[in-house]
Amino acid sequence: MAAYRAVLAVLRRTQSGFFGSAGLRRRSIAVQSFSVTSQPEAGAGSRCLIAQSRYGHFSRNVQTGAGVLWAAVAFSLFSSSEEDKRDEAQKKEDEMILLLKKAKLSIHRGQMQAASSFLHQAVALAHQTHNTQAIIYTYSQMANLAYVQGQLENAEKLFKAAMSFMLSGGTPEDDNAVIEMSLKLATIYAERNKAELAEHGFKFCTESLEAKLEKHKELSAEEQTEEAEALRKETRLLLGLCLDSRARYRASNLQLNHAREDYQGALNICRQEQGETHPQTLVLMSDLATILDLQGRHDEALVLIQQAVDLSRAAGHLEQHVLLGNMAGILLHTGRLEDSVRFYQEALSLAQQAGDQEAVHSIQEGLKEVKKRRSQSKEEAAG
C-alpha cells in the first residue's frame, strides 16, 4: 500500500490546473454497485450521502468498472445575496452555477460533448473566483464524464486534480470523499492494467474505512450522536461499495475465491444497512450466485438466486427480469434445460415490457445456448 500512499503524498503537494479534453467516443459500462457520494466531512451540513443501485446485465462476465456518473451535489455550495448587492465575483459564481446546471441537463440528455464544454467553462470560472469547493466538484464531474466516455487516462488526471485540491486544503486522507475518489482511481488503474496500483488502491480504501468503523465503536455514549451514526452508516455503505468494486475486479481476473469473499462482505453490509429486499441487496445476491456458479457450486448458487427472485417478486421490483435471466443461466449450467427455458421466457417477456434491450439480447443468447445444448444431447443419444 506504500505505492498508493506515495501517490497521495504527491497529490497533497501538487495542485493541478489540468483541463481535460473530452472526445466523442462512448462505451457502455455494466454497473452492479451501490454508489455513495460524499462531500468532505469537515463542517456542518457539508456531507451528502446518495445511495444508488442499478442492475447490470446478467452476463457471465463480471466487468470491472463502476461507470456511474456521480449525482450532482446541491448548488448551495455557492453563496448568493440580494441582486442589488451582487458584485462581479458573485455574477461569475451565478454564471458558474448556470453552467453546471446546463452540464447536468446535457448529461441526462446524453449530450456529452455539450456537457464537457459547459464543465470546462465552469471550472475556468471556479479558478478565477478561487472557489476551491467549486473547483473540486467540477473536476470530479469532468472526471466522471471522461470515465463513462472511456477516456480513462483523462479521467485519472482529472480525479487526481480534484484530490490534489482536497488534500492540499487539509482534507484528511481517511475522509469519505477522498476514499471514494481513491476507489474511482483504483477502478481506473484496474481497467488500465496497472495491477499494483489497483490492488494498493483497493486495499487503502477498505483498510481506511475499516479503521474508521473500529474508531466509531470506541465512542462514548455522549459522542454517539445522530451525526456520528449518519457518518457510521455512510462509512459502512462506502465500505460495501469498495468490496463490491474489488469483487468485480477480482472476478474479472478469475480470482474467484477472493471475489466470493468480497461479494459476501458487501452483501452482509447491504442486508444490515439497507434491508433484505433493497434492490442492491438482490443485485449482490445475484452477483454472489454468479461467482458460486462459476466455481461449479451450482446448488448453492441456485438456492441463493432463488431467494433473490422470491424477494424480488414479493417486493414487486421493476427489474425482476435481470434476476430471472441469471437464474435461467444457472439452471442451464445444472442441465435443467426445461426449467431454464421457462425462466428465460418469463425474463424475456418482462425485459421487453421494460424496454431493456441489453437484457433482451442477453436472454436471447441464453435461449440460443439452450437450443445448442438440446441439439448436443440429441446427437449424443443418437450416437
Automatic annotation (TrEMBL):
Gene3D superfamilies xref list: Tetratricopeptide repeat domain
Methyltransferase is among the record's keywords: no
Entry keyword set: Coiled coil, Mitochondrion, Repeat, TPR repeat, Transit peptide
Protein name, as recorded: Tetratricopeptide repeat domain 19
Stored SMART domains: TPR
One GO cellular component, as annotated: mitochondrion
Residue runs in coiled coils: 206-234
Localisation: Mitochondrion
Record family assignment: Belongs to the TTC19 family.
Keyword Cytoplasm: no
PANTHER family with a match to the protein in the record: TETRATRICOPEPTIDE REPEAT PROTEIN 19, TETRATRICOPEPTIDE REPEAT PROTEIN 19, MITOCHONDRIAL
Organism for this UniProt entry: Oryzias latipes (Japanese rice fish)
Lineage, uppermost ranks: Eukaryota, Metazoa, Chordata, Craniata, Vertebrata
GO annotation terms (biological process): mitochondrial respiratory chain complex III assembly
